[in-house]
Write a structure and sequence with these properties.
This protein is an all-alpha fold. It has one domain. It is 79% helix and 0% strand. The longest helix is centred in the first third of the chain and has 44 residues. The radius of gyration is 21 Å and the shape is globular.
């Protein structure tokens, strides 16, 4: 490929992904629909089967699935630089919006304002909606419902920084035991990826190496920026199920340790529903609250770095992995545990910090109906929540 052609491809990817970054509301499932319409139907950058297989890989990996799909499409279109450009275009709009929101929150000190309480109620509604959809798909049988129940009980009764990780690992082992003979459709064709196996192995080594080395470096240096990078990197590495599941991990990392208050945390989570793009950019808000715009950029790099390393490290091996029933079985157990972790997070900290009276519950019911039954866009729910929160303070 000539240099001019490479530059044209990169500019095209940047233009298209940035437009998607400004317009993709509605969460990861909606993002995948936007990608399909733009990249597959309109521009035909990939065929339907390859896109479905790429989505399957990104659902298999921890991290932000829609962002990983976007990175993968960029990589297959124009190599590693294409993946980086695709990520920047899709992510930057929401990163900038949330950093600005955090700086305004710090400057004007309106964390206790009524509209902030309204955004916290929006967080209740959004997570409840996510749970309903995920539970239907990820816990269809009694065995997986039982795994989810175990995750709820353990996560609520033992609220430590390592509980969620332990639950996910144990659920993966149980899923492996129960579903290792689960039948799979093996009719799909192999995909071809512009990444060497050597580079893939280096990325995987780097992924696991940072996961082990960062906590050790954090203890040895006692530097705030190293601690921040470690917390966000670990959250990005261990989250199965998309952006909503990162909530409890980030809450455990930053609220009990005093980095930011629960009010600030939930206000930012509510605001994150109002912006397009991946929900993982919520990390940019947290980083900016803690350490200004520099903290926001550091947090964004740290939480998305695992997604990059994993997608680059697994693309060449996906043809083999996706046909392994044992790995598939472990993932079924992990996904069931994710539902339980989400339900626990819905109760604490979201519900206990947001639904403080009967009128709060009534308002949440109205917002839930607007989102689920009337199918109104998420930004309408967020705007209604903010305005309604102002009125609730006057009642």
């Amino acid at each position: 490929m000539t240099e001019k052609k490479q530059i044209r491809l990169l500019l095209e990817i940047l233009m298209v992904s940035t437009r998607l970054g400004f317009t993709s509301f509605g969460g990861p499932v909606a993002h995948l629909g936007y990608f399909h319409e733009e990249y597959i139907r309109r521009r035909k950058w990939m065929d339907e089967k390859s896109y479905v297989d790429l989505v399957a890989l990104c659902q298999f990996l921890p991290g932000p699935a829609s962002s990983q799909v976007g990175i993968g499409i960029g990589v297959m279109r124009a190599g590693i630089l294409g993946g980086i450009v695709s990520f920047i275009g899709f992510t930057l709009p929401s990163v900038l919006a949330l950093i600005i929101f955090a700086l305004l929150l710090n400057s004007f000190g309106f964390a206790d304002a009524g509209w902030i309480h309204g955004l916290k109620i929006v967080a209740v509604v959004v997570v409840a909606h996510a749970i309903l959809g995920m539970a239907k798909n990820l816990t269809p049988d009694v065995k997986r419902k039982t795994i989810a129940l175990f995750a709820i009980v353990v996560t609520l009764l033992w609220q430590t920084a390592f509980t969620q990780v332990g639950v996910i690992l144990l659920a993966g082992f149980v899923g492996f035991l129960i579903y290792r003979h689960h039948t799979l459709d093996d009719s799909s064709e192999n995909m071809k990826f512009p990444i060497s196996h050597r580079l893939a192995v280096i990325c995987l080594i780097l992924f696991f190496g940072l996961l082990i080395a960062l906590p050790l470096l954090r203890e040895a240096t006692n530097l705030n920026w190293v601690a921040m990078f470690d917390s966000f990197y670990r959250a990005g590495s261990l989250v199965f199920g998309g952006g909503h599941v990162v909530l409890p991990l980030l809450e455990r990392e930053f609220v009990p340790t005093g980095w930011l208050s629960e009010e600030q945390f939930l206000a930012g989570y509510g605001a994150a529903q109002a912006v397009p793009g991946p929900l993982f950019t919520f990390a940019a808000y947290i980083g900016a609250v803690i350490n200004g715009w520099q903290g926001g950029l550091l947090a964004t790099i740290a939480i998305f770095l695992p997604a990059f390393l994993l997608i680059l490290g697994t693309l060449p091996f996906w043809n083999t992995l996706r046909r392994n029933p044992k790995i598939k079985g472990a993932l079924m157990g992990v996904n069931a545990a994710v539902v339980g972790i989400l339900i626990a997070a819905l109760y604490h900290p979201i519900w206990t910090s947001s639904i403080l009276s009967a009128i709060d519950f009534a308002f949440a019911a109205v917002l839930f109906s607007m989102l689920v039954f009337w199918k109104l866009p998420p930004w309408v729910i967020v705007l209604t929540g903010a305005i309604g929160g102002l009125f609730l303070t006057l009642i």
